[in-house]
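can u do me a favor
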């Protein structure tokens, strides 16, 4: 049987608007030894699978600093303090694509990386998504909106054009 480790201390290493990096000292419940573990504490995130009335999917192409590459993915971002995940999904969709949905359906949530992160990623299906104005990305986002037939998504995943884990989890839902 697996038992939780006992946290015996916490130290903050860095805080910024995106996450807090902490080290947690924890005691092994079997051996009694202590070890430090790094944890990224972050607010929850959302992503949105936007479908147009004619069955196309709206994607965004953007540069990702972690991998130093341009990725193809669905719109998404952080749940701001005081927002519900649904409100954040609507906001992110509008900011990144300039579109709004006829309706949002909650599909599920996943832990992006429970080995080192504490947050959830909430996924919504945006039905009847139509243009409502120009995209309004954050100042540190450079985005291209890409619209593809929904039936092209499996090929884009199989070819590796879409490889972002939380995007693949959204497609699973």
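np, heres the sequence
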């Amino acid at each position: 049987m697996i038992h939780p480790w006992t946290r015996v201390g916490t130290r903050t290493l860095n805080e910024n608007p995106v996450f807090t990096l902490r080290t947690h000292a924890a005691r092994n419940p079997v051996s009694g030894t202590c070890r430090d573990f790094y944890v990224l504490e972050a607010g929850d995130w959302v992503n949105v699978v936007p479908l147009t009335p004619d069955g196309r999917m709206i994607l965004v192409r953007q540069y990702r600093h972690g991998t130093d590459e341009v990725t193809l993915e669905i719109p998404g971002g952080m749940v701001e303090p005081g927002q519900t995940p649904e409100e954040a999904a609507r906001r992110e969709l509008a900011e990144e694509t300039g579109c709004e949905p006829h309706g949002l359906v909650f599909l599920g949530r996943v832990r992006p990386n429970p080995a080192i992160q504490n947050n959830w990623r909430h996924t919504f299906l945006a039905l009847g998504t139509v243009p409502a104005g120009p995209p309004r990305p954050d100042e540190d986002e450079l985005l291209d909106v890409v619209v593809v037939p929904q039936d092209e998504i499996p090929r884009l995943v199989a070819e590796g054009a879409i490889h972002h884990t939380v995007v693949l989890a959204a497609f699973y839902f």
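The first strand starts at residue 6 and ends at 15. hope that helps!!
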